[in-house]
Amino acid sequence: MGRVWTGTRPTCVPAPVPPQPVRKLLLIAAAGLAASPPTVAVASADSPSACAHADERPGAGGAARARDAVLCVINAERRARDLPALRADLHLRRAAQGYADRLRDHGMLVDTLGSSTPQRRIAAAGYAGGDPAAFAFGETLGRNTGASGAPALRVRSWLMIPDTRRVLLGRRLRDVGIGVHTTATTTTYVVDLGVRRRTVSPRSPSRSRR
């Protein structure tokens, strides 16, 4: 299932999802994301296999290594397509990790728990000064069991879904934070992406166009 957020009002749209008996996927993306050339193949240049721990299922205490591996694999895929690398952001990581930890008690991946939405979580973490109107955002969730929870396999699964691929391989969102929560059997991933909107001076109305 894919979900796309347009502004602040959620709109559900169908998204093709290949058969995945042990995975549940969810996507939330902000409007206006630039699409990358469609492809589902894993790039050979800057191979993700070169990323440390990318082929290992995160174990206890391995969240930090898994976060680094996911970012390394995503950026390897971006470099292979001549896209700029995503920049790690502490505020986005705080939002992503907090939500990954919170999802541990839920059997299904959901984008909203109570009043907690992706936009509110990112703002509460202090991104762009905590002003929801000051940033565009995207969020991608994933959960795998056993060895399929390895970072490289998780990213490969995301890239097989057009909506998710547009978020991870788009040109607009430049900052990223990754959350990872592991149990004895499952690994839950949350990837929050964002970009700060330009600050427009009231004395320069000609700069208000985006």
TrEMBL record:
Residues 73-190 form the SCP domain. The keyword Cytoplasm does not apply. SUPFAM superfamilies: PR-1-like (SSF55797). Keywords: Signal. Residues 1-41 form the signal peptide. It holds the Pfam family CAP. This is CAP domain-containing protein. It comes from Baekduia soli.
